[in-house]
């Protein structure tokens, strides 16, 4: 098995290559600007540096979202293009589930709450147990002082991701709220780890109809009205 994974859920991009023995190679590019132009270069480099070619791939996996509308669109378009060109199957993985997998081995007995910034006081989030199983589904949440209070009464909860900064001032004083010092970003490494299992169980998407998991409609900035003198 040779599996290429792509994550463009937030600004920047991450690419990884997994084989039968596990992770073979990976590249991560994090920048404040869109890095879509670099995605194809990273894909080429990660495959070549592991001494393979694109034709050797058995499947392509993609972080399906939630996340940045533009980032998800670029990543999914690239993955679908590769699937068509190479005639390979497509695997889609929930971005938040893959983020949770990064920390689940280190916080046994805790619940994990990855968060992706959705602008203003809103975040995309879900809750997982320490076995990386969903406890609460993926959703968009507008943060306030009561967010997650009921969950925190019974459990220690780890909040992380670029959306956790909105949560921290509201919940930092709660004894069951945990905020890791290290920054946790979406990564193709854990997208690939989950995709390996999906590949073994033939959990493939319909390439023609697959769309990113935007979670909410894209809202473009309102156009300013122009005053025209006639």
From TrEMBL:
<dbReference type="GO" id="GO:0061711">
    <property type="term" value="F:tRNA N(6)-L-threonylcarbamoyladenine synthase activity"/>
</dbReference>
<dbReference type="InterPro" id="IPR000905">
    <property type="entry name" value="Gcp-like_dom"/>
</dbReference>
<dbReference type="Pfam" id="PF00814">
    <property type="entry name" value="TsaD"/>
</dbReference>
<keyword id="KW-0808">Transferase</keyword>
<dbReference type="InterPro" id="IPR043129">
    <property type="entry name" value="ATPase_NBD"/>
</dbReference>
<dbReference type="GO" id="GO:0002949">
    <property type="term" value="P:tRNA threonylcarbamoyladenosine modification"/>
</dbReference>
<protein>
    <submittedName>
        <fullName>tRNA (Adenosine(37)-N6)-threonylcarbamoyltransferase complex dimerization subunit type 1 TsaB</fullName>
        <ecNumber>2.3.1.234</ecNumber>
    </submittedName>
</protein>
<dbReference type="InterPro" id="IPR022496">
    <property type="entry name" value="T6A_TsaB"/>
</dbReference>
<dbReference type="GO" id="GO:0005829">
    <property type="term" value="C:cytosol"/>
</dbReference>
<feature type="domain" description="Gcp-like">
    <location>
        <begin position="33"/>
        <end position="170"/>
    </location>
</feature>
<keyword id="KW-0012">Acyltransferase</keyword>
């Amino acid at each position: 098995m040779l599996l290429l994974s792509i994550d463009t859920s937030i600004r920047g991009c991450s690419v990884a290559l997994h084989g039968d023995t596990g992770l073979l190679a990976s590249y991560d590019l994090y920048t404040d600007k869109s890095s879509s132009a670099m995605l194809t270069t990273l894909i080429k480099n990660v495959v070549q540096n592991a001494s393979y070619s694109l034709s050797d791939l058995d499947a392509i996996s993609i972080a399906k979202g939630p996340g940045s509308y533009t980032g998800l669109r670029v990543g999914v378009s690239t993955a679908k293009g590769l699937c068509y060109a190479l005639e390979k199957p497509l695997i889609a993985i929930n971005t938040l589930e893959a983020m949770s997998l990064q920390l689940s081995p280190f916080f046994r007995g805790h619940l994990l709450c990855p968060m992706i910034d959705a602008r203003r006081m809103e975040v995309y989030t879900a809750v997982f147990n320490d076995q990386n199983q969903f406890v609460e589904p993926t959703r968009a949440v507008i943060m306030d002082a009561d967010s997650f209070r009921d969950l925190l009464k019974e459990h220690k909860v780890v909040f992380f991701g670029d959306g956790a900064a909105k949560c921290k001032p509201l919940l930092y004083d709660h004894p069951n709220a945990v905020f890791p010092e290290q920054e946790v970003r979406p990564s193709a490494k854990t997208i690939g780890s989950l995709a390996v299992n999906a590949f073994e169980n033939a959990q493939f998407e319909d390439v023609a109809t697959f769309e990113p998991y935007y979670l909410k409609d894209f809202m473009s900035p309102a156009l300013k009205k122009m005053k025209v003198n006639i």
